[in-house]
Amino acid sequence: MVLNIALLTGLVLFSALAVLARDLIKSAISLAVSSLLLGIVFFRMNAPFAGVFEISVVAGLITVLFILTIALTKSEGEVGESKAALWAFPIFFVVFIVIDALVMKGLMNKVPALPGAAESGAFGDVLWKQRTFDLIGQLAVILAGVFAVLALFRKRDNDNE
Amino acid sequence: MIFLYVGLPLIVAAILPLVGRLSKKFLPDILGNGVFLFLFAYAVTGGRSLIGAGPLTRTLNWFGEPLGIQLALDGFSLFMLATVALISLCVGLFSIDYMEHYGAKANYYSLLLMMVAGMNGLLLVTDLFQIYLFLEVAAVASYALVAFGREHEELEAAFKYLMLSAVASAAILLAVAVLFGMTGGVSFAVVSAGLRALDAKAAVGLVTALFLFGFGLKAALIPFHAWLPDAHPSAPAPISAILSGLLIKVSGVYAMTRVFFGVFGLTPALSQVLMWMGAVSIVVAALLALGQKDMKRMLAYSSISQVGYVVLGIGIGTPLGIAGGLFHLLNHAVAKSLLFLNSGSVQQATGTRNLDEMGGLAKRMPVTATTNLVGSLSIAGIPPLGGFWSKLLIIMALLQSRQGLLAVVAVLASVLTLWYYLIIQRRAFFGKLNERWAGIKEAPFWMAAATIVLAVLCLAFGVLFSSVISTWIQPAADVLAKGMGM
């Protein structure tokens, strides 16, 4: 219980830092740490596949891509952190914890659930045989992202061809 | 074969950037429009025979092995598929000439096809998670298309759109997650049966609120409309047409209707919420449209107002109201696409969207002016155009269900609609020709052709309204009414 609370607190802390930090490197690293903590939470909640994807893709691959991209852009001197973060963040955090403590337990008790169904197969079976259309959808999201990059970062001289 | 609606645009979108290296102009135009033409012909000719014996569910096979791809086609999804294909085709034809000066046509068609694949996927899926997934496919493509011109205004509008749309997607995903936690499944049938087995009023209320917020933001209903008046005018005209004509309806209205009618069932309270959200959107957006000087921004506010009519009609929940709402969805898709394409023709000829700088353009652009007049009168609800009949059905349904106040609101807002469309006519097309525009010419062939097709459809849907309703609208409305156990 204590470990769960510590993990979730860290998750909220680093997620907020990822939004508030102005230095992009600090922001990317905060995001990676929060996603690492989320991955651990997934493992502890008996969802190992979600944990593996969260840690390998979100905490690992995406962070590497972010940092590579930031390294390729030109830096214009030191980035000063916003002073607003110093007072805004603690307020945000306290308000979040208070709302969480007051609302979530009561809310969760009001959400009834049917008994969980038995596991319907191995991970590979679920992914490839039962949720195949999800894979196509995800492929389409990635393709759309690739086309977006191709279109928005096209060379100027292509414009008038 | 239903999979073609998603698979074909996806495959062609994937090969277009490679094909674009061989031919920068003709092949992208031919391939893009070829796909739209095929999808339209398939929806109109083959689709109805597919669902002749009732709703169809297909599971795909791969060399005899069943794949986890299940798609469903019924009257409602077929009606929407045909609408998507029709508007995409007209937008594609318009783009042949209009997108010349933007360049990178292969990239443009790739994104457009991805957006259509996303919308078609959303129309055919059978579970809640896939609704979210295909919503994102269409959305990611649309962010890039809004920013396609890469000017400051476009990039800013796309960023604002992305941020608010991400919030909407998060709310939808959270709602799906809660439902999954409660019922142990995400398919419409499992969730619907699970909710019936559970007594979960508070949780269903929470999930309904999340869906209302998420889909309401996607449909740009007031008070979730802030992104639309920036995003839609900033995009290239064909994209404005498809966003206003299709995307807000598919990812907002269709998805919301499918979930509320097919999974939750429309309760009297939810019906009231939908009707009032629709009515407030109609009035507030119409008043906001009146004060606009930017032609496309005025059209964007008009979209919010007209989607309000669609939601008001569907929200009544009676067969007549649903039919009226769906017919207005079709009429608005056609007329608003036409008006946005017209605004693109005007902007390309004059370089401005400011109504104060225009004047007398009908003398130099007669086709654009005439088609614009037809589209405006249809949206304003003037007989015998399509918009008149759909608004009449909605108002009759309101009176039938004893919603006199909302009926009065719908009638009065229609007068407001006519008012702001007459402002466009008077300031842009009629009156004395502004000397600055003495040398401008009518829109090129494909741009003019696309607007003529849409204007003819505005007229045809009005004159042939009875057969349009019996062929397309009634089967769609029956699906929704049946979902409510009527």
Query: By helix and strand content of chain B, what is the structural category?
Result: mainly alpha
Coarse morphology of chain A: flat
Helix content of chain A: over 70%
Shape of chain B: globular
Report the order of strands and helices of chain A. HHHHHH
Determine the number of helices of chain B (DSSP H or I, runs of at least 4 residues): 18
Low-confidence stretches of chain A: none
Q: How many DSSP-defined strands of chain A?
A: 0
Main sheet strand line-up of chain B: 1-2
CATH superfamily of the largest domain in chain A: NADH-ubiquinone/plastoquinone oxidoreductase chain 6, subunit NuoJ
Give the averaged pLDDT of chain B, no decimals. 91
Radius of gyration of chain B: 21 Å
How many extended strands of chain B?
Answer: 2
Task: Describe the fold and architecture.
The complex is a heterodimer of chains A (161) and B (486). Chain A is mostly helical and 161 residues long. Chain A has two domains: 1-73 and 83-112, NADH-ubiquinone/plastoquinone oxidoreductase chain 6, subunit NuoJ (Four Helix Bundle (Hemerythrin (Met), subunit A), Up-down Bundle), CATH 1.20.120; 120-156. Helix content of chain A is 75%, strand content 0%. The longest helix of chain A has 26 residues, at 84-109. The model of chain A has no long low-confidence stretch (mean pLDDT 81). Chain B is mainly alpha-helical. Chain B has a domain at 266-486. A two-stranded antiparallel ribbon of chain B has the order 1-2. In chain B, helix 5 (128-146) runs antiparallel to helix 6 (152-183). The radius of gyration of chain B is 21 Å and the shape is globular. The model of chain B has no long low-confidence stretch (mean pLDDT 91). Classes of the chains: A mainly alpha (161), B mainly alpha (486). The A-B interface holds A 107, 110-117, 128-134, 136-138, 140-141, 143-145, 147-148, 150-152, 154, 158-161 and B 6, 10, 13-14, 17, 24, 60, 66-71, 101-104, 107-108, 110-111, 114-115, 117-118, 121, 125, 129-130, 133-134, 136-137, 140-141, 143-144, 147-148, 150, 178, 181-185, 194, 197-200, 202-203, 206.
